[in-house]
Structures are given as structure tokens and as C-alpha cells.
Amino acid sequence: MTHSLKFGTSGLRGLAVELAGAESRRYATAFLAYLRKRGPVEQVLVGRDLRASSPAIAAEVMAALDAEVVDCGEVPTPALALAALERGAPAIMVTGSHIPADRNGLKFYRADGEIDKVDEAGILAALGAAPEHGRSPVAAPEVRARYVARYAMLL
């Protein structure tokens, strides 16, 4: 079991080498299982930041989810959060935010916004073995394109 992975602001943080692989699949699966105890979940959006470890962690997250997985690609966290709110779907953002480059994290969003401490406890309670695979992701390049277009208007 890993030792550095801990919940913080809206998600899980720790050493990237500990989050990669089975641990990212375990937490993604636990998040989905927890949400499904509250109601049906058909779709989950996944985004990632530009850290070197983020693509591999995001691939593990997407591969683990037994739902329609929407790959939003490399986008800022607020862009993913907005897309999830607009679709009424939960999301997982692979991001280390402001922490050192050897670390990374999973930021979780319910369909109505960021998770809270109650949700963290529910996710931890749902942790189990890492699944081998879920469904293949569907790309959503419009999430990034919309973000870029919005900020290009400011120039």
C-alpha cells in the first residue's frame, strides 16, 4: 500500500510514481462506485495537465472506468470543471497543480461540482482492487478548443 497518497483540496495528491498504475485505477474506480451508490453515472470526463507523469496516469484512469469515458485531453482544471458542469457529468482531472514535479494528483468532480470531505470518505470506503480495464475513451477536443478560443478573444 502506498504512503504518500492523501486527500487534500478536492482530490488525491502524492508521489507520481505511487499514483501511477494500479493506484490511479483503484481511486478512479472507487470514485465511480461511490457516485453510483448515489445514482446512475453514464459518463465521466477526464482531463490532464502538462506534467510528464500526467498522460500515463490519465490513461490508467480512463482504462479503469466502466462508463463512457470522455477524454478532454490537456486542459486547465477550470476548463474541465466547466465542461463537466455543462454536461451534468462527473470528472477526474489529473493534475499536480502547484506541488513539485515529482508529485501528481487526481482532482474529483461530482456532476454538480467539487467533492467535499464526505465524498472523500465515501471514495476511501469504496477502494478495492484495481480493475484491469473499462471502456475505450471518446475524444472531446472541443473542450480545449473552447478554452483556447475564449482566451484568444482577450488578445
Can you tell me about this structure?
- The protein is α/β, with parallel strands linked by helices.
- Helix content is 41%, strand content 24%.
- The protein contains six helices and eight strands.
- It has helices at 16-19, 22-38, 54-64, 77-87, 117-125, 141-152, and strands spanning 6-8, 11-15, 43-48, 68-74, 91-94, 103-110, 113-114, 138-139.
- Strands 1, 2, 3, 4, 5, 6, 7 and 8 form an eight-stranded mixed beta sheet that branches.
- The chain is globular, with a radius of gyration of 14 Å.
**Span of the ends, CA to CA:** 48 Å
**Helical segment count:** 6
Specify the biggest β-sheet.
8 strands, mixed
Structural class: alpha/beta
Q: How large is the share of residues in beta strands?
A: 15-25%
* Spans where pLDDT lies below 50 across 5 or more residues: none
**How many E-type strands?**
8
Shape: globular
Helix fraction bin: 40-55%
Order of helices and strands: EEHHEHEHEEEHEH
- Please compute the radius of gyration using only Cα atoms: 14 Å
Overall pLDDT confidence: 91
